[in-house]
Automatic annotation (TrEMBL):
Broad class of the protein's primary localization: membrane
Keyword DNA repair: no
Name assigned to this protein: Uncharacterized protein
Alphabetic keyword roster: Cell membrane, Glycoprotein, Leucine-rich repeat, Membrane, Repeat, Transmembrane, Transmembrane helix
Membrane topology term: Single-pass type I membrane protein
Amino acid sequence: MTGSIPQTITKLKNLKMLRLSWTNLSGPVPEFLSQLNELTFLDLSFNQFSGEIPANLGKLTKLDALHLDRNRLTGPIPDSFGRFTGSVPDMYLSHNQLTGSIPKSLGNMGFGRIDLSRNKLTGDASMLFNLNGSTQTIDLSRNMLEFDLSKVEFPKSLISLDLNHNQIFGSIPKQITELHGLQFLNVSYNQLCGEIPNTWNLTFRPEAFDESSYIHNRCLCGLPLSIKCTFGISSIVVMVHAKRTTSAIQHGITSTESDQLAELRVNLNSEIMKQNNLERQLVQDRELCKKKMEEERRAPQLESKQHEEKMITLQATLKALQDNQQGLTSRDKEVMPAHSRISARDRLRPRGAMSEEATRQPLNNS
């Protein structure tokens, strides 16, 4: 079977079950399907349907199950899916390309089973958890959901909860230990912190709550993880959300423990301040070190340049002195009288001695 669903199907006014899964049907999900008022089961899974989900499917008041999973659907989840006026259907929208946030109206429905996994949904999903609801299965895995799990109240009817691969923060509520029907739990690959509540009494299937259910979180500790909690009294949960660091202290402790936790919180804040100051000091020291290293690197070049400048100055001074000396010598030769010019040999003769020429001259007889 290929192509799209023909509109002639609306002539089947009493049709209660329509299953067209595992075919090659494509195109948008037809809006005219909302005309099948008696429909209780609609399964279009494992096909090639694309486009947005028709909002008017929320008009099917007798629908008990809606399977649109494993298609190529895009866009948001219709807000009308939170306003079913008749029975509340089990809803399977997984393995699509749905985007946006989950409509808050879905929190009013109390779906028995809801699977929104493997989409691109963002924002809050806490509205799907209702303490007094009858939800049995919730699968929100592999989205980009972000909410505080510690503020969630789980329905006591919960059997399976899968939240892996999201951005969920906070701590795991101790209330989860009261869910005696819980058979599967996976909160791995999130931003959770704090001590893992003891869930060993919840099921006869040990593998349902092994280490893989909790790995790759921000700072979860305690069994079944190998990471030990540093605080034995209760856990102080440090959460990072929207670049704001806050501290959340789990409740249900004695007054003595409360005092001790208060002291721990003060010490923690003090240590955080010290760490911030230390980080600032390290930045300053690093910049100063870089500056000194640059100066040391340039020092030989500066010294060499200064030495070169000194040599040039000395050479210029020496040349000037030589030029001055030569000038003085030339002037002395020009100014000296002829009669004062005596040979070097005469200058060296002792005083009173006569030169050889003088002795040879005859004496005049007067």
